[in-house]
Amino acid sequence: MPSVVRGGHALNYRFNFRDIWAQTDFILEGILVTLVLTVVTMLSGLVIGTLGAAARVHGPRWLSGIVAAYVEVIRNTPLIVQLFLVFFGLPSAGIRLDAMTASMIALGINLGAYSTEIIRAGLEAIPRTQVEAGRCLGLSGVQVFRHVVLFQAIKVIYPALSSQFVLLMLATSVVSQISAPDLFHVASIIQSRTFRDFEIYAVVSVIYLALALAMKLGFAAIHHFAFGRR
Amino acid sequence: MIREFAAIDVYYLLLAARWTLALTVLAFVGGGLFGIVVALMRVSPFLPLRALGATYVNVVQGIPLLGWLFVFFFGLPILAGVQVSSWVAATVAFSFYAGAFLGEIWRGCLQAIPRQQWEAGAALGLGFGEQLRHVIVPQAVRVAIPPTVGFLVQLIKNTSLGAVIGFVELTREGQLTNAATYRPFTVYIAVAAIYFAMCFPLTQLSRRLERRLRVAR
Predict the structure, then answer these.
(1) Residue A229 is assigned to a structural domain of this protein
(2) pLDDT (tens digit, 9 = 90+) per residue, A171-217?
(3) Please, are residues B206 and B153 in contact by the beta-carbon 8 Å criterion?
(4) A136 within some domain
(5) What value does the CA radius of gyration of chain B take, rounded to a whole number of Å?
(6) Cα B120 to chain center, whole Å?
(7) pTM (2 decimals)?
(8) Domain containing residue A215
């Protein structure tokens, strides 16, 4: 962790990226870990979010209350503190986790809260009359959900959820603080190997930017093909 | 030397929460200035300005806050030729970051005002600046308050990352307390509770303002 900043003069500083290019393989490994964390968390967050939203909308009162409390607690505390609680706090309760597992759990719990809210809003955006119309046509509850609610709800949820996924990918960088070997942690190791502080963080930032743009383009393409013609 | 976690530690954590709030206020003021400029650029009639504003927002929002903190922490000394404290680096990085998000929020609010309002202003012979000042902004401010309060919550939470460049706020104080007492669960629960106590009232306020706005329409 940096504690001292060397003051150089603007004109004296020579940028040097050569030492960083020498670490390309290492950087690629970090990118891979970041992507794995992102995909795993997207899936677990989606599952938690769907269950949470179902509990909020259709569940019994006590369950709905518990889920609401979970959402509020997670959304009003920082991710890094949640991560520290899982990684440093749980061992004192006898649960010992390695950095990657702790990261996946903390990120999944975090994204689960946000996606619960997003999916709940999507479900509630479907007018009651649509459901009633479906029932009037003689469709069963499941059929109404499949043919009437589902597609419309996904259409409402999709933009918010996909931008939440991009934010999640960027937020995975926080796991570097418990030494999970993601791209940002790789950056701090390369920093200590090469002492090219500014250069490595600039390079890694640009990589994140590229990943974020790629995700946005991918989600936009999916949106175009899935919802474009309707 | 490991000592017990005691009431005094909670007191120290509360004292450190002041620096969380101080950094939030600085970032909000700095980010607000950036945000106004960005929002105006994005609704301006000149394409290059709109494009520049959009690029700023996309670049800032496409890079993790941790990245910005380190880039500014190591980049400012190169740029300025002097050492910078973590106060300066954190304030600049957070302002820069918050500016993009506030700019987007406020742009949305400006654009939420119907076109006809602009046109009515133009019909009265007002220029772009006058339309903005006398017609659009007074209406947009009301729409802007709930999401801005909501973003304040994000900002309070995000200042926790200032800890990584050695800025001693609530999270960093939690780390230091943990190192002295080795009671990670208790310490981080206390830290989380203090964050919750700061953020939850704002979340509720934002929600209530939004509901009132919807009723008023």
Answers:
(1) no
(2) 999 999 999 999 999 999 999 988 888 999 999 999 999 999 999 99
(3) yes
(4) yes
(5) 21
(6) 34
(7) 0.90
(8) 19-223
Interchain contact, B73 vs A5, CB within 8 Å: yes
From residue A91, alpha-carbon distances to A45, A95, A103, B99, B178 in Å are 24, 5, 14, 39, 14
On whether residue B2 sits in a domain, the answer given is no
Q: In chain B, which residues have their Cβ closer than 8 Å to the Cβ of A3?
A: 166
Give which of B186, B11, B202, B43 is closest to B108, Cα–Cα. Answer: B43
d(CA B9, CA B4): 9
- Which structural domain, as residue segments, surrounds residue B107? 7-216
**Alpha-carbon torsion A181, A186, A191, A193, what sign?**
positive
Domain assignment present for residue A10? The answer is no
Residues of A in contact with B205 (CB under 8 A): none
The ipTM is 0.91
The total domain count for chain A is: 1
Hey, how many other C-beta atoms are within 10 angstroms of the C-beta on B130? Answer: 13
User: Token pair of A133, please?
Assistant: 């119309």
Which pLDDT tens digit goes with each residue over A145-157? 888 888 888 889 9
Q: Computed over its alpha carbons, how large is the radius of gyration of chain A? A: 22
Phi-psi region of B125 (alpha: psi -120 to 50; beta: other; left: phi over 0): left
Put simply, whether A88 touches B (Cβ < 8 Å) is yes
